[in-house]
Amino acid sequence: MRFTRTTAQQDMAESLRALLADVGGTALARAWSDGDAAPWWRCWARLGELGACGVAVPGEFGGLGLGAVETAVCLEEFGYAGLPGPVVETVAVAPALLAGSADQHRLPELAAGRAVLAVAFDELVPRALDADVAAATYRCAGTRVLRADPVGAPERSVDPVRRLWALGAAGTAVAGARPAAAFDAGVLGCAAQLLGAGRRLLDDSVRHVRDRHQFGRPVGSFQAVKHHLADVALRLEFARPLLHGACLSRDAGAGHAARDASAAKLAAAEAAHLAARTALQVHGAIGYTAEHPLHLWTLKATALRAAWGDPAWHRRRIADALAAGSTADIGTRS
């Protein structure tokens, strides 16, 4: 089984990387954090023109109708750029939640990049991300899905660009919505974001140790530094095929798709966490300052590690699946 990107998928990633580099991910994140959403919306509209916002939206609703692998490719690049906002909820969760439901009429505006959606799940995602900018907010309570409004004031995440909103207990039920499928779409989307953030942390660290000199030599020439960065690179490279395989399991409708999603999220979360710790170590004191761009990616990796189920929860889900006899290979149909 092929666990690497096709030429088309790689071309998609490179196009998104070029666009996001052009709009300036750091400046975009800082503006969003300061309450200025206008630059973000301009970027989101351009992503909509490329088809990235509707990559998983069925073709009859104006999307590309592609699979989980292509969705992960997009979200990995969003994570690499540090793109704020409810991107996982809009790109990955909304098509899985709303296709075939009473609210599927919202999908065209999501695919076009004209709107975003916010979602909360009572058990593991109790707050809706950036619900104040969403065209609709949904609360998934077990097997029920409600259109529920945000209440109170937003709560601050450890990541300053994330605003978390509680949703009201009352709301209108949405017939035909699929919360279980939507949750695992969010898990895979978060794993892709983490992989992208981890890659960005590694790339920034490598650039820093090449430029910074001590004792008349680049810091990156010291063997201990090389070993730390090599460990990060290995973790990220091991996480990538797990994510790809989990996406294939989801697209195939495999019975072990939930187990595979947890494996991908766990591997990506731990890889990004190691990348953040190593980046702080090799950058030194400057990496701890809020003014340095590293600050954005380390805090994002920390927040995403706990989002959509923390590592302990995903370990339990994997263990429960294995104990129940789920031993099929990741990425297979059986």
TrEMBL record:
Cofactor(s) demanded: FAD
Record keywords, A-Z: FAD, Flavoprotein, Oxidoreductase
Keyword Flavoprotein: yes
Domain Acyl-CoA dehydrogenase/oxidase N-terminal per the UniProt entry, residue ranges: 7-113
Taxonomic superkingdom: Bacteria
Domain called Acyl-CoA dehydrogenase/oxidase C-terminal: residue spans: 182-322
Family label: Belongs to the acyl-CoA dehydrogenase family.
Protein name as catalogued: Acyl-CoA dehydrogenase family protein
Species classification: Bacteria, Bacillati, Actinomycetota, Actinomycetes, Pseudonocardiales
